[in-house]
Every structure is written in C-alpha cells, then in structure tokens.
Amino acid sequence: MDNVKLPIGVFHPGTQHSWQTARALQEIDDLGWYATAIFWAKDRLPYNLIPWLPTGIRERVTAELRRFHHPMLDLERVETFAGTEWAMRLSARLGFRRLARRLQLASNRAFARPVERLIDKKPVRAVWGYDQSSLEVFRAARNCGVKTILDRTIGHPIVHNRILSEIYNDYPEFFTSAPHLMSRQFIERAEEEHSLADTILVGSQFCSDTLTSGEGAPVDPRKVRILPYCYDEIFFPIKRPRSRFRHPIRFLFTGLAGPRKGIHLILKVFERIPETAATLTIVGDLQIPRDTFAKYSDRVTVRHTVPRPDVAALMESADCLLFPSYFEGAGIVLYEAMASGLSIIQSKHADVVLSDNSELLMTDVTEEELHRCVLAVIDRPELLEQQSLAGLASVRKFSYRAYRERVAEVARLV
Q: Which helix (H) or strand (E) holds 214?
C-alpha cells in the first residue's frame, strides 16, 4: 500500500471551472474526491424533495439547480457540504450584494472544516483549490505534508482595486455605490494563499502579469503556470461557421453586467449607433443603478441569469459576443462563443483568443476603442464570417480534451 500513489482532491464551495478539473482528474483516474457546496443529485437529500414543492416554486428551484449539475461526474466521488452557501446565493439573487459578499467569506471559511476532515478520512497527495476559498485548507494540508495547488481564477486584488478606482473616476454614474474594492483582509487572504501554494495556476498571461507585476506582495514567478481553461462541450458542442450576416447585427453580452466587465462602455457605444444597424442582448445580473440603465433600456434586451445550457441557445441566435472586460482571469465565455461560431470583440485584459492583428481586438479598454470595433463589424459584416471561421479553426485548443491533457501534466508534477 505504501507504493500506491494517492490521488488528488478538488474543492470549491461554488463552481467556476472546478467541474472540468474534477472530471479531468476522474478520467485519468487521479481524482480522490470533489468537494463542493451544491451539486444537484436528484436522488439525494434535499434535492429529492423538490418534486413535492408547489409547481411555480418547483420550476424556479429546478432552473436554479440546473446550474449546479454536471452529468459526467461520478457521484460516488462528489462530496457536498452546503453550509451557508445556500444563504449566500439566495441573498445574491434577491439583490443583497453586500450581505452576499459577507456570507461568501463566511461560506468559504466554513467550507474548509469539512474539507479538512475529508483529507483525514480520504487521504490525497495534493489538494486543488481556488482563490479565496483555499486558505484554511492549505494550512491544514501543509501541516500533514499534502501538496497545494491554487487555481487563481482572476487577477491580483490590488490590481483589481486600482482598475476599479480608475473606472469610478471616469464613470461614477454606473456604480450603485462607491466601487467595491477588495478589503485589506481580502488582499492578505489572497497573498497568504499565494505563499502557501506549491503551484499557482492562472488562465491567461494577463492574470499572470497581475501576480508578478510587483503591485502586491511578490509572487515567485516560478510558482506560476498558465493553464488555459476549457469550454464545456456537453453544453456547447461545436457549431458550423456563420455566414450571410444582415443588419441589424445581433450583439450579445453575457456575464456579470457591471463596470468591471465594461458594461458602461457597451451601453454608451450603443447609444451612438442607429437601431437599424445593431441590437444588443445582455444575459446576466445587471449591476448598475436602475436610473442609469433607464437611459439606455430602449436599446437593450435583458435576460437575467440563466442555466448554462440555455446560454448556448442564446449564442446560437446572436452574431457577435462583446467582451470589453477590464479585469479577468481568462474568460470561459470566450471559448463558448468560439465553439458556437460567434464572432468576438474583446479586450486584452483576459485570455486573448483573437489574433494580435485582428481588427476586433481592442488596443485599450476605452469607449472609443469599443466603438471602433463595433463599427467595423457593422460596416463590414464579412468580418463576422472571417472571425467565425478563425474561431472554429482554433477552438479545439480550448476543448475539454486539451484541458484534460494540461491537467494531467500538472498532476504528474505533484
């Protein structure tokens, strides 16, 4: 038994791309367990009580839980410890964002305790965790000689604070309050996770640069490894190339629709574009003041957060994804859009999936740059077809199979 190599444990109280990580390790027979807060397993408590709920409530609950299920994961290896995660998600859905943020921190800390017990109960050689939910588990893992892998899904919080402050100075009307800056406690937590991690994985060069830029506590660049994420081929099977584009061009934004993602740039650009030239659909949680949004609402169709499988259908009915983000880890929606045959307009503050010389790659995150890119598409719709073909030709490097090979390489090193 001493010669048997122990597997790896994956943990995340939410989702991110942890499902794909767990599935990849499962398929190379190197997953000990996947610990999470919510995972919809119809035959387990409390999910098997859902059929008894009144029809209207049952439909809403089922729609929400569909976002917490992956059919390829072996339920025998899935461990759930919900804790305060339910309360956090309910608060977020009701719009109580400050409460949700406090509950999220409490959930991350509370989630660590059962994971620590799981390490004792089902030993592993390494734990694979995610930013802001790994600190306590990493401390326990280090004490018992278990390796630590930190999947850093977004850039350094100090860089985040600088960028958000700059946006607020220029566009204060798009904030519901003063910008939500990461607290000193939050930053210290992140930096201790960095120090305790044997390996730090990031999804893009931009994210890596924020860690090693020197704005925060220095991170040893030898620890940092760029591991591009993947899209989920179960929900986003590769489509055919798009062609025969006509006005109005159908633009799509999906994700948290707030200033960090550049939603204000999108709204201001569409204010300047004739309605006959383009339409805009926003899918996600709208995080700007209602009064501010009201000025632009006649130009926008808003769909609130939908289950992942439904996003694929919305992409199918769009022509071009807008991604003028100021601050990312990678941007999995970019890969989903590529697989869907969508054209993309994006900033460089994410994983850059466009060629360096693409007309649709923003040279800076500004209103004028986004306006230039949008007009290029409107004036020359053939760019959409070219982008669709180029994206489909290169999307396989973001496939699950390619990601699994990258995960296997990381696993071999621990």
A: none
User: Which distant-in-sequence residues (6+ apart) come within 8 Å of 305 by Cβ?
Assistant: 67, 283, 284, 285
Which range has the top average pLDDT, 131-140, 227-236, 362-371?
A: 362-371
Q: What is 36-74 written as a DSSP string?
A: ES----TTSTTGGGGGGS-HHHHHHHHHHHGGG--TTS-
Angle at 22 between CA 223 and CA 25, to 5 degrees: 75
Phi, psi (deg, nearest 5) at residue 249: -70, 135
**Residue 356: phi, psi to the nearest 5?**
-60, -30
Handedness of CA 342, 346, 351, 354 (dihedral sign): positive
Whether the Cβ atoms of residue 335 and residue 229 lie closer than 8 Å to each other: yes
Q: What is the mean pLDDT of residues 149-174?
A: 96
Say which residue the tokens 């995340």 belong to. Answer: 12
Task: Please give the Cα distance from 273 to 267 (Å, whole number).
Answer: 10
What domains appear along the chain, each with residue ranges and CATH number?
Answer: 8-230+400-412 (3.40.50.2000), 249-398 (3.40.50.2000)
The C-alpha angle with vertex 289 and arms to 286 and 303, in degrees rounded to 5, equals 25
Going by the DSSP 8-state scheme, the letter that residue 213 receives in this structure is S
The whole-angstrom separation of Cα 75 and Cα 33 is 10
Q: 234-245 burial by CB neighbour count: b if 16+ within 10 A, else e? A: eebeebeebeeb
Using an 8 Å Cβ cutoff, are 374 and 247 in contact?
Answer: no
Instruction: Answer for the pair 403, 351: CB distance below 8 angstroms, yes or no.
Output: no
The better pLDDT of the pair 265, 79 is held by: 265
Structure tokens at 94: 């009701």
pLDDT at 38: 76
